[in-house]
Amino acid sequence: MSIERIYLFDTTLRDGQQTPGVDFSVEDKIAIAAMLDEFGLDYVEGGYPGANPTDTAFFAKKRTTRASFVAFGMTKRAGVSASNDPGLTQLLQARSDAVCLVAKTWDYHVEVALGCTNDENLDSIRESVEAVAAAGKQPMVDCEHFFDGYKANPAYALACAKAAYEAGARWVVLCDTNGGTQPAEIRDIVQAVIAAGVPGSALGIHAHNDTGQAVANSLAAVEAGVRQIQGTLNGIGERCGNANLVTIIPTLCLKETYASRFETAIDTDKLVELTRLSHAFDELLNRSPDHQAPYVGASAFATKAGIHASALLKDPRTYEHVVPDSVGNFRKVMVSDQGGKANFINALKRRGIEVDRQDPRLDKLIAIVKEREASGYAYEGADASFELLARRTLGTVPDFFAVESFRVMVERRFDSHGRLKTVSEAVVKMVIDGKTVMSVAEGDGPVNALDLALRKDIGKFQAEIADLELADYKVRILNGGTEAITRVLIESTDDTGVRWWTVGVSENIIDASFQALMDSVVYKLMKNRQLAGGIAAE
Ligand SMILES: [Zn+2]
């Protein structure tokens, strides 16, 4: 059986931009296009040149070197020729390699939204595709509402797809714009399109995730014959999102049922960068990665200690559907109070910590973990704090610096203009090499002020933590016993792209935050010296 090529089309910068809360600047778009290009996607769609200043500026230059750079826009209006349509003219002037035209294929939308006849719409599709080809660019057509349109009027939806193909569109992309179509329907309708004369080698699928099946629908379309998949990074997109390329790509590459029949531009060398790509994109969106994301989530290959963990360590294949390294992720066996001695030894070993079964310090560590988990700590979500606790108990954490005291003030008052203002200020006093240092900082809220003061001056270590960044901060109020206690989880990262989690627990939120912040800084210093963070799959 010959291997067939599946083309990957990214629409993060166009359809992904529809995500609530996402609004890319030109600089963001340039950075994301470079990430996608570098990763190796076939097509990078950039937006609507001419429709808004950001996209017009973005299309002033070609922004990819390997991938085809795609501009998106409407087919020409009815009643004017392609060359007299200002929208289409601007679209053709953009510095793109290809143009994706969006066309109405549901007769109801043709009438209501375009206000033209069905035949006029077919003419618009043909003439616009021809105009793109005449401009020396690769034409493709997104058939909007194709599946719903097919259900309402199959003959007309097919006529639109055929008009696009026969006019010279390289790709005719079938869109499930409302996202409600089911995999079996996708399969049947794609087969009908192929039977009507548009070959699968010219068909693409654009699925939305409104029933949680954008990935399944994309794969069903591939099974039925389409050879181009459109999607976005991490599945961003309006409403419930678009098909997630970060899930689809490893599925095509690693699952035998696809890998034995298809290939993509992403080879195994590139695939190991997938987790990093996904997290770097979240970083750019300023949001924390989804821990449960398939393949790339922090929990994707995590197992709680217990019977699974011991079997997992004996033979990882028994509990993993793919090798975590293949997508640049790693195996995580979490410690918790359910864990027995063997699990602790294994958890420590994975962090490069050797300890003898008979070592009394091991019993002490187990006792501390159990006691702390009972009081609200959650080490399974705070790997770095667990590693520090273990190394401290075993006596291998250097005394980088000591915090003698800290003080946080929150003041609510009227400023000189008579406006009400809340000011947070923190003072941290610490000892480094026998010298006392005092730092003061103001921040947006008490925790931020404390963080700034703590990291403002740690003497000779200052330059080392310059790239330390707090990626996320989570607070939970736990109702244990008579009083409420607060658990703070902090996610940190640095220029190496590694992420680590630390935890603090106290009756006082500032104190809990301080513990987690301190652990993060100390872990970073340890990691810089290769004294920690050597977590690796065995
Ligand atoms: Zn869409």
Notes on the structure:
The chain is of the alpha/beta class and 538 residues long. The chain contains 19 helices and 18 strands. The strands form five sheets. Strands 2-3-4-5-6-7-8-9 form an eight-stranded parallel β-barrel, surrounded by seven helices. The chain has a three-stranded antiparallel sheet with strand order 13-14-15, with helices on one face. Strands 16-17-18 form a three-stranded antiparallel sheet. Helix 1 runs antiparallel to helix 13 and helix 18 (446-456) packs parallel to helix 19 (509-528). Residues 15, 177, 206, 208 line the site of zinc ion.
Layout of secondary structure:
Elements: E1 4-5, E2 7-10, H1 26-39, E3 43-47, H2 53-58, E4 68-74, H3 86-93, E5 98-104, H4 107-114, H5 118-134, E6 138-144, H6 146-152, H7 154-166, E7 171-176, H8 183-195, E8 203-207, H9 214-224, E9 228-231, H10 245-254, H11 256-259, E10 262-263, H12 268-271, H13 274-285, E11 302-304, H14 307-314, E12 332-334, H15 341-350, H16 360-374, H17 383-393, E13 402-414, E14 420-432, E15 435-443, H18 446-456, E16 469-480, E17 483-493, E18 499-506, H19 509-528
Parallel strand pairs: 1-10, 2-3, 2-9, 3-4, 4-5, 5-6, 6-7, 7-8, 8-9, 11-12
Antiparallel strand pairs: 13-14, 14-15, 16-17, 17-18
Helix pairs in contact: 1-13, 5-7, 6-7, 8-9, 16-17, 18-19
The structure holds zinc ion.
